[in-house]
Write a structure and sequence with these properties.
Elements lengths: L7 H7 L2 E6 L2 E5 L2 E5 H14 L9 E4 L16 H17 L3 E2 L9 H8 L7 E4 L13 E4 L2 H10 L1 E5 L3 E7 L8 H12 L8 E5 L1 H4 L3 H9 L8 E3 L4 H7 L9 H10 L12 E6 L6 E3 L7 E3 L13 H14 L14 E5 L6 H11 L9 E5 L3 H10 L1 H8 L2 E2 L20 E4 L14 E4 L2 H10 L6 H8 L2
Helix pairs in contact: 2-3, 2-5, 6-8, 12-14, 12-15
Length: 475
């Protein structure tokens, strides 16, 4: 009797079950554990205090991202936070035998940028990290998710993690993506349409012709922000685009091992008749550049839209949330997004700091200057991204325009390194969250694509990037 059809998620899950624990929970083997400085230091200090060793230190790799300064002249001593975490993380990793991308080395960067670019994130792997946006790595066909601090310690000690098998959702992106519309615009549009609870802890598989036409960098954005829909996992089946991206990367298989890996990766995509708990089909043809107006990624509108009126909302809880968001953001119902004056622009993060993102932003900037009222930062997602961008001359475009060209790290995305937007100031950011205080106490954050952020920087207001890009394409 033939085996029943399975989804991509089930194929990976089934091959990693160490033991069923009952009630839908399994003990899973972890193939790759990414350890960032904040969660890593706390867990390793705890293990050291208890005399616990790492079972498979070779399957963990550590990096400095959340706590490091991104200042152009940074050192490990730049801030009190980096003084605490940089040397401690390095010493603890050496103590436990855990490989680490050193603070001043070419591999340093945000975990969710470094993993894919180094070939650490591979199809069919289970990947965990003490950060919710670990779902990013699902863009390579991996089952990847964020874990809590106690789970970080558990993985270090046992190379396993307890996890409940998720519901399987599929979102098929049909139609044609319009020029000037980024992957960030598509995922923000989906979150706005379905809400931050739409994924309900599920594994969301993105599929369809729009996804297949995307680069890996674009796919990483979709999977990164699946978390903002409430999902536990975001994932995309590996294809020829995946293989072309991974070939030759530092930690990817090579030679006969590559051939064997590719043969396995090609059988991972969901079977034709596989069943999902929920399926959605979206026509992307009408999606325009998006920008958030509130304090949740679901509080978003097209660049040509206006701030909605809470009084028109039927649900009392949502109505209160909308009113609170407008008060925090100092906006009124009916305010137009296009033309709203801003103070800061942040181009960076694991949702907007890859090389492709910087190229798109630089296309918009061109020979223009940052508006006089704006402070603008470009923070590459990794040192490798920064070096590649400098080799292409992108840094010169940004610095001539008046941007600060900085070192890599999480920076203003989470403000956990001491870098913040001043209270009351309005920032257009390419990051993934706009919660109250996310970029610093009282900071007002508008999420947008790299192109939209660049347009805001040079105009001093939220602006549609498409006219800038149309001029380039039109010569």
């Amino acid at each position: 009797m033939p085996a029943p059809p399975r989804t991509l998620v089930d194929k990976i899950w089934d091959s990693h079950v160490v033991a069923p624990l009952g009630d839908g929970v399994d003990l899973l083997h972890v193939d790759r554990h990414l350890l960032h400085d904040l969660a890593g230091v706390l867990s390793l200090e705890d293990m050291q205090a208890r005399g616990v060793t790492a079972l498979r230190p070779d399957l963990t790799i550590a990096m400095h991202d959340h706590g490091v300064s991104t200042a152009p002249d940074r050192t490990a001593e730049s801030t009190a936070i980096s003084r605490r975490y940089v040397p401690t993380m390095t010493a603890l990793c050496h103590r436990f035998g855990i490989p680490i991308f050193e603070f001043d080395g070419p591999g340093q960067g945000i975990a969710h940028v470094v993993g894919p670019e180094q070939g650490l994130s591979l199809p069919g792997l289970t990947i965990v990290c003490g950060d919710s946006h670990t779902s990013s790595h699902g863009a390579l066909g991996a089952l990847a998710w964020g874990i809590g601090s106690s789970e970080v310690t558990h993985v270090l000690a046992t190379q396993t993690v307890r996890q409940r098998r998720p519901r399987r959702h599929r979102i098929r992106l049909d139609g044609v993506r319009r020029p000037g519309v980024a992957a960030k615009d598509i995922i923000l549009s989906l979150i706005g349409r379905f809400g931050v609870g739409a994924g309900s802890g599920a594994a969301v598989e993105f599929a369809g012709p729009v996804v297949r036409a995307m680069s890996i960098e674009d796919r990483l954005v979709l999977c990164n922000m699946a978390i903002e829909m409430g999902a536990k996992f975001g994932i995309i089946a590996p294809d020829d685009t995946t293989l072309a991206y991974l070939a030759g990367r530092a930690f990817a298989p090579a030679g006969p091992s590559w051939d064997r890996a590719v043969a396995h990766w090609r059988i991972l995509p969901s079977d034709d008749d596989a069943l999902y708990d929920l399926e959605r089909v979206i026509d992307c043809s009408e999606i325009v550049p998006q920008v958030t107006w509130g304090t949740s990624p679901e509080q978003v509108t097209g660049i040509d839209g206006r701030v909605p009126d809470p009084a028109a909302e039927q649900d009392p809880q949502r109505r209160r949330a909308m009113a609170a968001a407008l008060d925090y953001m100092a906006l009124r119902p009916g305010d137009a997004m296009d033309g709203l004056s801003i103070d800061w622009v942040f181009i960076g993060s694991c949702a907007g700091g890859r090389l492709e993102d910087l190229r798109e932003a630089a296309r918009v900037v061109g020979d223009r200057r940052v508006a006089a009222n704006v402070t603008a930062w470009v923070v590459p997602g990794s040192t490798a991204v920064r070096l590649a961008a400098e080799a292409e001359g992108l840094d010169a475009i940004f610095t001539r325009a008046g941007f600060q060209w900085r070192h890599s790290g999480c920076s203003l995305c989470a403000a956990s390194n001491g870098e913040t937007v001043p209270p009351g100031q309005r920032c257009v950011a390419t990051s993934n969250r706009n919660f109250v205080g996310r970029q610093g106490p009282g900071a007002r954050t508008h999420l947008a694509s790299p192109a939209t952020a660049a347009a805001a920087a040079v105009t001093g207001r939220i602006a549609d990037p498409r006219p800038f890009l149309d001029r380039i394409q039109g010569g």
